Amino acid sequence: MAAVTSLLDSISDIGRDPVRGGYSRPVFSAAETELRSWFTAEAQSRGLAVETDRNGILWAWWGEPQKGALVTGSHLDSVPGGGAFDGPLGIAAALAAVDVLKERGVQRNRSLAITVFPEEEGSRFGVACLGSRLLTGAIDPDTARNLRDDAGTTFADAARAAGLDPEHLGRDEDALARIGDFVELHVEQGRGLGEDGPAVAVGSSILGHGRWKLTVHGQGNHAGTTLMEDRADPMVAAAQIITAVQQTAAAQPGARATVGRIQAIPGGTNVIPSRVDLWLDARHEEDAVTARLVETIHGKAQKIAAFEGCSVTLAQESFSPTTSFDPALQRQLQLALPQAPVLVTGAGHDAGILAGHVPAGMIFVRNPSGISHSPEEYVEDADADYSATALADVLEDLL
Ligand code: HGY
Ligand code: MN
Ligand code: MN
Ligand code: MN
After folding, report:
1. Residue 296 three-state SS
2. For the chain, first and last CA: distance in Å?
3. Residue 314, class by beta-carbon neighbours within 10 Å (0-12 exposed, 13-18 middle, 19+ buried)?
4. Distances, alpha carbon 59 to alpha carbons 3, 301, 383, in Å
5. How far is the CA of 305 from the centre of ligand 4 (A)?
6. In CA terms, which of 298, 324, 385, 390 is 20 to 30 Å from 12?
7. Count of beta carbons in the 10 Å neighbourhood of residue 264
8. Which helix (H) or strand (E) holds 390?
């Protein structure tokens, strides 16, 4: 078993989710904390010096921390019931790529750092890429501090428990200046490389994507004593709204809209809910189309709610505009990986947030299942191990 597959194998029991299947590794949870310790130990065993910055981003340095370094990284947190590769593949490939570069005796002209970003999935506090948004100032620190998880814990409290000073969260000029070029290697999360495509692709851009919360207010009541004609049931409205989401997106070429999370309040089997919260994830290559899509969905939701004697509010939780990667860096990645096609990705990444501030690029590794954010996410061992060589080829060119 070669480097990347054995690194991934060594964490394969951390954060397993017996109910959902796959892995649930929320930021700053016991599982993700264990993964951060794993990363720190693996990096230190390679002679890399590891530090944590004010936003909880881990930096493992080969060479002195310096401005304009070459940086590669990804994340270790996961979606609920996520796959084994989304995030950890980029981290394992970076560690193994350092082994390859050292074996090749590569002489560095600048330092190399491997970074681990917290809360890339936004699964616990609701905002994706929270670590890189804090680093770049793309989110107001106060807004970040007051984000709450389902248990009501604020990000400030979770960050403090993880050893950070929540008052210190926010744009970090020094850390940002240290990123001369940023490359993220990541499992391909769609069918871009298909069943028998090449092992790797180079990223060109990321679809714009956002998260909205729809709250449907109705009349909570008793399931047994309330006649059907006397109801204002927000769950009945929510069901029709979700169908309207699907129909609206299906009618818009290239659009993707998902309601993957819904919550009935209070949530009793024998209780007509007083409120139903549902979260919308909407994406498209053109930001104006995404905006129009959400507007159309909101209008349909208001009509449906009114018909059911309910009301509905819409709140935006986060939005990331369509992002293109640095063309010069993309060309260098393509030179180092001549057989790699160029892919647009529908998945968000920290590289997408960083691309607005520093030269950033991505490499994708073939996932024959074409499925992600699911235990079925898959990378063949040979491709996983080759990904370290591909990343080393790219990094050697840039070092
Ligand atoms: O949601 C996304 O696209 C990313 O996986 N966080
Ligand atoms: Mn990811
Ligand atoms: Mn993901
Ligand atoms: Mn991502």
Report:
1. helix
2. 28
3. middle
4. 21, 45, 26
5. 34
6. 390
7. 20
8. helix 381-398
Give the environment of ion ligand 4: residues with CB less than 5 A: 349
Ligand 1 mutation target, pool 124, 186, 189, most atoms within 8 A of CB = 189
**Ligand 1 atom index nearest CA of 129:** 6
Collapse the DSSP code of 235 into the 3-class scheme (helix H, G, I; strand E, B; otherwise coil) and give the result.
Answer: helix
For the chain, residues classed under CATH 3.30.70.360 are: 208-320
Cα(270) to ligand 2 centroid in Å equals 39
Q: 83 is written with which tokens?
A: 């796959």
Class in CATH terms, 4-207+322-398: alpha beta
In this prediction the ipTM stands at 0.90
Task: Show Cβ contacts of residue 368 under 8 Å, excluding neighbours closer than 6 positions.
Answer: 194, 195, 196, 378, 380
Amino acid in position 251: A
Q: Ligand 1: does its nearest atom lie under 6 Å from the Cβ of 348? A: yes
Handedness of CA 65, 68, 70, 72 (dihedral sign): positive
The closest-lying atom of ligand 1 relative to the alpha carbon of residue 209 is 3
383 lines ligand 1 (CB under 6 A): no
How far, in Å, from the CA of 186 to the mean position of ligand 2?
Answer: 7
Q: Give 122 Cα–ligand 4 centroid separation in angstroms.
A: 10
Domain with CATH 3.40.630.10 in the chain: 4-207+322-398
CB 128 within 8 A of CB 120: yes
Domain 208-320: CATH architecture, name and number where available: 2-Layer Sandwich (3.30)
C-alpha of 394 from chain center? 23
CA of 165 relative to ligand 4 center, distance in Å: 26
One pLDDT digit (tens) per residue for the chain, 399 residues: 569 999 999 999 999 999 999 999 999 999 999 999 999 999 999 999 999 999 999 999 999 999 999 999 999 999 999 999 999 999 999 999 999 999 999 999 999 999 999 999 999 999 999 999 999 999 999 999 999 999 999 999 999 999 999 999 999 999 999 999 999 999 999 998 977 778 999 999 999 999 999 999 999 999 999 999 999 999 999 999 999 999 999 999 999 999 999 999 999 999 999 999 999 999 999 999 999 999 999 999 999 999 999 999 999 999 999 999 999 999 999 999 999 999 999 999 999 999 999 999 999 999 999 999 999 999 999 999 999 999 999 999 999
Ligand 1: which residue has its CA nearest to atom 4?
A: 348
